[in-house]
Amino acid sequence: MSMKGPSLRVRLVPSMADIDAAAWDACANPPGLVVAQDDPQKERYNPFLSHAFLLACEASGSAVAKSGWGGAHVLVEDAQGKLVAAAPAYLKAHSMGEYVFDWSWAEAYERAGGDYYPKLLSAVPFTPVTGRRLLVAPGDVEAEARETLLAGLAAVREKTNASSIHVNFLPKAEWDAMGDAEFMKRTGKQFHFFNRGYGSFDGFLEQLASRKRKMIRRERKDALANDISIEKLTGAQITEAHWDAFYNFYLDTGARKWGRPYLTRKFYSLIGQSMADRILLVMASRNGRMIAGAINFIGDDALYGRNWGCIEEHPFLHFELCYYQAIEFACERGLSRVEAGAQGEHKLARGYEPVPTYSAHQIADPRLARAVREFLVHEREQVEEQIEDYAEHVPFKKAQDTAASSEGDLSI
């Protein structure tokens, strides 16, 4: 499919392998990208938007038409054929691997005789991480390129007879703009750790209420009982043997939690080859045998926790590998935050704070659109109330605790 505008052309490309990597990355992670200074999720480089990551999802057989992820990437080129904007997009045959749940919408529409699938999704497969979805390169045609990209998504939806367009985990500024473009606005919540210049894990602990500080120290100690050792690996330190072990952990935990893991073994080899310096692999061993692991991706200003797994159950080992080691790494590297994935109220007691997430939706059938719009009004109110309630229960010292500490309170 191609579509021409006054000075720009839209193309639909089914595979990242058919897109020039440098041209894509110049849109996805342009050097000197200006981000909203008041956005706590601001990020200069997002590893999940890179050509390498998205290509690995497809080349590994993880996100392909056979698994319900038909590539439908939308490109905008200028008159000279230069890529000026892009959107990672997929024709979905189901709603799995998205982390923004619309199962009830699909069920209601199909009960009424409609076909909810395929739907058009702009997102990163299997990755509930906020990032730009309208990947517009800085330049003179920026505004026109963004409008053309939105028009291109609408044209793809119409041409493919998809029921709807969904744009998941986008920054608030993009969310607001898409609301102005007649997309319906949805919110969710996650829990992120914010590094307020702690410098070390102990520096972070000093800001917690005494009871929470003791709890975390006890959990970290108990996690390493039974002769468990932990190592943090990145870059060339990560070998195929590590990926073999980690994939076994991922399969075991995935099978117990959701039945069919999304990612293939090849995916991990591909990202290990193309972006190892952006990966932090935290591995636990006991008696010389690797027993658990967690994978994180490293941005310029954030650490993103993604998958974890284990083949031996040990108390608090999950918290240690996924949350405490990530905080420690962020403090050591001077990263401003850790995003530890979807859901998980248990993160709150461990220093992670509630934040909103954003998605935008456009549904072709006006009947379903009307029902969803009414639902989202109430859901946004509920999410806002939940975040406010969670914020009252963060484990940090209250003002009175801080005052007492300055007067000589030495409790630990």
List the helices and strands and how they pair.
Blueprint: E1 2-4, E2 8-13, H1 21-28, H2 51-59, E3 69-71, E4 73-78, E5 83-87, E6 89-92, H3 103-111, E7 119-122, E8 135-136, H4 142-160, E9 164-168, H5 172-180, E10 184-194, H6 201-205, H7 210-223, E11 228-234, H8 240-257, H9 265-274, E12 279-286, E13 289-298, E14 302-310, H10 317-333, E15 337-342, E16 353-363, H11 366-391, H12 399-406
Parallel strand pairs: 7-9, 14-15
Antiparallel strand pairs: 1-2, 2-4, 3-6, 4-5, 5-8, 6-7, 9-16, 10-15, 10-16, 11-12, 12-13, 13-14
Description:
This protein is an alpha+beta fold. The chain has two domains: 2-188 and 356-391, Aminopeptidase (3-Layer(aba) Sandwich), CATH 3.40.630.30; 196-335, Gcn5-related N-acetyltransferase (GNAT) (Aminopeptidase). The protein is 37% helix and 24% strand. It has helices spanning 21-28, 51-59, 103-111, 142-160, 172-180, 201-205, 210-223, 240-257, 265-274, 317-333, 366-391, 399-406, and strands spanning 2-4, 8-13, 69-71, 73-78, 83-87, 89-92, 119-122, 135-136, 164-168, 184-194, 228-234, 279-286, 289-298, 302-310, 337-342, 353-363. The strands form two sheets. Strands 3-6-7-9-16-10-15-14-13-12-11 form an eleven-stranded mixed beta sheet, with helices on both faces. A five-stranded antiparallel beta sheet has the order 1-2-4-5-8, with helices on both faces. A hairpin with a 4-residue loop joins strand 4 and strand 5 (83-87). The longest helix has 26 residues, at 366-391. The chain starts with a strand and ends in a 6-residue tail after the last helix.
